[in-house]
Specification:
The chain is mainly β. The chain has one helix spanning about 45-50, and strands at about 5-10, 15-20, 50-55, 60-70. It has a four-stranded antiparallel β-sheet with strand order 1-2-4-3. Strand 3 (about 50-55) and strand 4 form a beta hairpin. The longest helix is centred in the middle third of the chain and has 4 residues, at about 45-50. The protein starts with a strand and ends in a 13-residue tail after the last strand. About 0% of the residues are buried.
Length: about 80
């Protein structure tokens, strides 16, 4: 794999995370762990995010994004932003 670009932006009580890479196929969604205690390699973004998706920008590659909920103690208001 070539270059990967990560961008994060805090908005009130959410953290928006975007990852760009040079691929154009949809992101692979891992299978959930089995009830026998199996493990999943990687992170299932859908299980930890409020929303997520991907898009193909006009400049090429793909961007996978996720919106993560922040607890009140980590919200933008407590980080000196308004």
């Amino acid at each position: 794999m070539g270059m990967i670009v990560l961008r994060m932006r805090m908005e009130q009580r959410s953290l928006l995370v975007e990852v760009w890479d040079d691929r154009t196929e949809p992101p692979a969604i891992p299978e959930p762990p089995s009830e026998e205690g199996g493990q999943v390699e990687g992170l299932a973004v859908g299980s930890v995010s409020k929303a997520w998706d991907y898009y193909l920008p006009g400049s090429g590659g793909r961007v996978v994004w996720a919106e993560l909920h922040l607890p009140h103690s980590l919200g933008a208001a407590t980080m000196g932003e308004s």
